[in-house]
Fold this sequence. Notes:
This protein is an alpha+beta fold. The chain has a single domain, classed as CATH 3.30.1330.40. It contains three helices and seven strands, in the order αββββαβαββ. It has helices at 5-12, 61-83, 108-123; strands at residues 29-32, 35-41, 44-45, 48-49, 89-100, 130-136, 145-153. The strands form two sheets. The protein has a five-stranded mixed β-sheet with strand order 1-2-7-5-6. A two-stranded antiparallel sheet has the order 3-4. α2 runs parallel beside α3. The longest helix has 23 residues, at 61-83. It is globular, with a radius of gyration of 15 Å. The two termini are 13 Å apart.
Amino acid sequence: xxxxxxxxxxxxxxxxxxxxxxxxxxxxxxxxxxxxxxxxxxxxxxxxxxxxxxxxxxxxxxxxxxxxxxxxxxxxxxxxxxxxxxxxxxxxxxxxxxxxxxxxxxxxxxxxxxxxxxxxxxxxxxxxxxxxxxxxxxxxxxxxxxxxxxxxxx
Length: 154
């Protein structure tokens, strides 16, 4: 990486949201040896999912794409808290983007780009992950998008 992630965020004018708090029996991040797994992130305000419902029926795909970006930012916030600095991230290995989809919606990959394009902006080519973009019937809190991350650390 030519630019450190903290410098890239500053250059992009991005301030990370507060680290997420678990809503169940799990931790936001598990760090093991040189890997960190970030639990699924949904965008929540005042205890409720932002723009709840199924993508295409209740939530426009463009809004869902922005929510994927925001969920990825939450994941980065969780990583920063767990690692002490995002500059410890060497490579984004895998991103899973789950999209609560209305019947017939087949553009989950476009929604997922909201998360992965952000990661490339922050980490350069080391932010370009293997990825799954999966349509599901429902997500926790009726959220339209959930994002999880796996990264390699120093």
